[in-house]
Amino acid sequence: MSANVSIIMGIYNCAETLPEAIESILNQTYLNWELIMCDDGSSDDTWKIAIRYAEKHPDKIKILKNDSNKGLNYTLNRCLKKATGKYIARMDGDDISMPERLEKEVSFLEEHEEYAIVSTPMIYFDECGEWGEGKAIEIPQLKDFVFHPPFHCHAPCMIRKEAYDRVGGYTVDKRLLRYEDCNLWYKLYSKGYRGYNLQEPLYKMRDDRNAFQRRTISSRLRAVYVQYNGFRMIHMPLKYYPYLVIEMSKSIVVGLMPKVVYDFWHKKRRLKSNV
Description:
The protein is α/β, with parallel strands linked by helices. It has one domain (5-206): Alpha-Beta Complex (Spore Coat Polysaccharide Biosynthesis Protein SpsA, Chain A), CATH 3.90.550. It has 10 helices and 11 strands. The chain has helices spanning 18-26, 46-56, 72-82, 101-111, 161-167, 180-190, 209-213, 217-233, 242-255, 259-273, and strands at 5-11, 33-39, 61-65, 87-90, 96-97, 117-119, 122-126, 129-133, 158-160, 195-197, 203-206. The strands form 2 sheets. The chain has a 7-stranded mixed sheet with strand order 3-2-1-4-9-6-10, with helices on both faces. The protein has a 4-stranded mixed sheet with strand order 5-11-7-8. β2, α2 and β3 (61-65) form a beta-alpha-beta unit. α6 (180-190) runs parallel beside α8 and α8 runs antiparallel to α9. The N and C termini lie far apart (48 Å). The model is unreliable at 269-275 (pLDDT under 50).
C-alpha cells in the first residue's frame, strides 16, 4: 500500500542532529507516511545512522546514497523519483517537526483543493534553546515575492505531487544552490499554483552560528540571481526591479559582517524574541 505522504530529506554531515530529526517524524500523529532520505556524500556517520533507522523501520524508511556530493536540488530529485505519496513534505536533517505537523498539513490540502502548497511558521532554535518565532503571510500573492519569499523556508512545506511533476521537480543548477526552494516557488506560481501559510508554528528550524557561516557573499548574491530570474518567470512589473539592486547591496554588507558583530546581533534578536 502506497503512503499518502512522502517526506523527502537530503542529508549531509548531520550525524549529531539526524536522530532527533527522524524521531520527530516517527512521533507524528499522522501515520500514513514514508520517509525517503538521500545521503549526499557525507564524511561523518550520517549514512550509518540512516541505515540503522531504515533497518529498524523498513516499512516506513527508504534510503539512497549519492556517489559524491551533488547538491540538494539533485539529491531531492532522487528522493522525488522514489516517492509514492499524493503529497510531498520536506524535512531537513537538523530540524524538528512538531507532532501534529503532517496531520494538519494533510487536512488543509484535503479540504482546500485550490491550494497546491501549505506551509507553517517556524520556531528558531540553537544550542542555547529556542530564541524566536517566525511570521508568515497567510495567503501570499505575486506582489509578496518582491520583498521576501512567500514561504520563509522550504522545509516546513507540503506540496501536491502533481504540482512537483508539472514543473519538473527541482532545477539542477549550481547557481541555485541553497536557493532551490525560492526557484521552486517561482516555478510553481508561474504555472498558476498557489500556497497558504497556516498561522500555527509546526516546525522547529535550527538556526545557529554554523548556519550563518554557510551564507557567504557568493551565496547571498545567488539569492539575488534567483530572484531576478523569478521576477521574469512570474512577469513581475518592471517598477519592482530596482529592489534587486538594494538586495544586492544588502547581500554584500551582511556577507562582510564580522563574526563579533553577528554574534551581538544574534543575541539581541534572541532577547527581543523572549520579551
